[in-house]
Amino acid sequence: MNTSIARKLSLGCTALAAWLVVGLAHAADSAKALADAEGLWAYRTLQGGGKGEHRPITGVILFKDGVFAQQSIFDGEPFAGQVAMAHAGPYGAGPKGIHMIAEQTISISPGKDEPLNFRRSTQHDIAVQRAGDDLTIVFDTGTVQTFERLGPGEGTLHALDKGLLAFVDGYFVLVHGDEQGVVSGFGKYRRSGSNYELEVIRWSEATPSTAKNRRDFKLEATFDGTTFALADGRKFPVARSNK
Fold first, then answer.
1. What does residue 231 show for φ and ψ, rounded to 5 degrees?
2. Which phi and psi (to 5°) does residue 210 adopt?
3. Does residue 213 contact residue 201 with C-beta atoms inside 8 Å?
């Protein structure tokens, strides 16, 4: 065999082997990140852009079966004017560990003339660091969020016509809406048949011109597997369930 050709083949095989090693390492890192993130987590702090002080925040994020849901409101006074956020969508392996696609990206800023900011299909890459029941996720933007574990995420997920409803670890998480109006919240719940008593911890809703934050109240609802209905008459149809 020509020496030059043999050398090129050797270099090619070496490069391929190195590529495979790197690829396997990335796959292993992503698999660990996915396993570490699985479950329901309560916020501790949020540090936007990796700079400044950690901001106190109350909320949750759920990673379960390739689907995530997040709802939160910053702590501060007056509570009615605090920024609320909610996201929901699929996730999987990514270059930093986990790649998330938020089908609903919701930001609510009460007091603004246009308080509702709604976007579709925003994408995020995050690195995951876990130590026991402590979780830190770092976004590609530099934002750092810290959490404590509430549970393994045992329960059911229900894709709504415009969002997601989850009942896991004794908690509910609701993310629903579009440019015309959104509703999101989380808290504990008690169930008796199709009747639910929601012990809401945080709740936020908005239209293009109005917004409202609520906290620490009870709300009656029903859920028959096909429609989630609040006592005030609002209904959220289910598109599919993952039980």
1. -65, -25
2. -135, 155
3. no
Alpha carbon separation from 199 to 3, 6, 62, 217, 219 (Å, rounded): 75, 71, 18, 6, 7
pTM, two decimal places? 0.87
d(CA 183, CA 52): 30
Contacts of 119 (CB under 8 A, 6+ apart): 102, 105
CA distances from 167 to 130, 145, 154, 155 (A): 24, 23, 8, 6
149-170 burial string, b = 16+ CB within 10 Å, else e? bbeebebebbbbebbbbbbbbb
Give the C-alpha distances (Å, rounded to integers) separating 3 from 6, 7, 8, 10, 240.
5, 6, 9, 10, 62
* Contact status, residue 201 vs residue 188, Cβ threshold 8 Å: yes
Amino acid present at 186? F
- The identity of residue 125, as a single letter, is D
* Residue that the structure tokens 């609903």 belong to: 104
Q: What is the pLDDT of residues 181-215, one digit of tens each?
A: 999 999 999 999 999 999 999 999 999 999 999 99
